[in-house]
Design a protein that fits this description.
With 346 residues, the protein is of the alpha/beta class. Helices cover 43% and strands 20% of the residues. It has 15 helices and 11 strands. A hairpin with a 2-residue loop joins strand 2 and strand 3 (22-32). The longest helix has 23 residues, at 180-202. The relative contact order is 0.16.
């Protein structure tokens, strides 16, 4: 099986082999392509961004062919949802790379991302705020957890700001003469204002004060900050996925990054040149979430849409057009497997 997630900033692929109680990842690929570069201003995908992305999709296609993939789903998210010329790009992906892209809604994006993360939720805490900071949008979910039952998404919200779109609006660093922390706080306040209606809608304040809410985040922002907090010389997924970030550490690291220019951020392990201009906007989104929902601790997930796709492929809950064969030939229903209990009924 293969799951491909083409976001505003990244192209990510997982190839896995189905087993009796889950799946085993046998190959993966990730590349920063910045497909959505400039879309928030122009409303169109640029030729250069499309060319970069097609080259990455060709690599994904070759990996899938080499691994003998027989069941796959490839999804595209916010950049393609916004761009006027997205259909011509989808045609290019099919004709030049052999990849059939499915442009999914923000609701399905949230559903897939949260499905992929559910194994990290603590079933003994009754409520959860789950979020995914993307390149062009940020998805948030308000979940209820009950013993012996799959998580229930009570409410979700898609905010039209991600690390790329927020950076394009504000810039990557403070202008000459503006205090760096003032610049950073402007971004935080902008995001907090966008999210406040969702905060009021779910009314989680009392439950947070009672310790009945957990928080789980998936994105390059939270994994990068976790890598910095852990003092990693180079990023290691096995150490980051499932780790915890205290809100005080989020603010400390974010403030340090805000006081650096892009060159200064690029020197830090787990950031580098490719992420240096986007990481601060991600921190602003994360800081706003922490400010509005003061849970105190965040669990970090290096998983999301791709894992959600794999789960849906295994349980037969992906859209019908994904399957290349008849219903009677679909993969066996594995919803009873421990790793997948939440997948089909999320």
């Amino acid at each position: 099986m293969a799951a491909l997630d083409l976001g505003t900033n990244n192209c990510r692929l997982l190839i896995a082999r189905q087993g009796a109680s889950g799946y085993q990842v046998i190959d993966a690929f990730s590349r920063i392509v910045r497909l959505g570069e400039g879309v928030s201003q122009s409303g169109r995908l640029s030729l250069e961004a499309m060319d970069r992305t097609i080259e990455a999709l060709k690599i994904c296609s070759a990996k899938m062919e080499r691994r003998g993939v027989s069941l796959a789903r490839a999804v595209a998210t916010e950049a393609c949802r916004r761009a006027d010329n997205c259909l011509s790009f989808v045609d290019r992906a099919r004709d030049e790379a052999g990849i059939a892209l499915d442009i999914i809604t923000s609701g399905e994006e949230a559903d897939l991302a949260f499905k992929g993360c559910t194994p990290l939720l603590d079933r003994n805490i009754a409520h959860a705020i789950v979020f995914d900071i993307g390149g062009g949008s940020t998805e948030l979910g308000w979940l209820r957890l009950r013993p012996g039952r799959p998580p229930q998404m009570v409410a979700w919200h898609s905010m039209p700001f991600g690390v790329v779109s927020l950076t394009e609006e504000f810039g990557a660093e403070a202008a000459a003469g503006e205090p760096p922390m003032g610049f950073y706080r402007r971004m935080v306040d902008k995001v907090a204002g966008e999210l406040d209606p969702f905060r009021r809608a779910i009314g989680a304040g009392r439950l947070i004060s009672e310790g009945a809410v957990q928080m789980l985040g998936t994105s390059g922002t939270v994994t990068t900050l976790a890598g910095i907090q852990l003092g990693l010389a180079r990023y290691e997924r096995s150490l980051v996925d499932g780790s915890y970030l205290r809100f005080g550490d989020v603010e400390r690291i974010s403030s340090d990054l805000a006081k650096r220019d892009c060159r200064g951020r690029a020197t830090l392990p787990c950031i580098g040149v490719e992420r240096a201009d986007l990481v601060l906007s991600g921190c602003a989104i994360l800081s706003a979430i922490c400010k509005l929902w003061p849970v105190g601790t965040l669990r970090v997930a290096d998983r999301g849409v791709r894992e959600g796709i794999l789960m849906s492929l295994m349980t037969g809950t992906a859209p019908d057009n994904v399957y290349a064969y008849g219903d009677d030939e679909r993969p066996a229903d594995l919803t009873a497997a421990p790793e997948l209990v939440a997948a089909s009924e999320f």
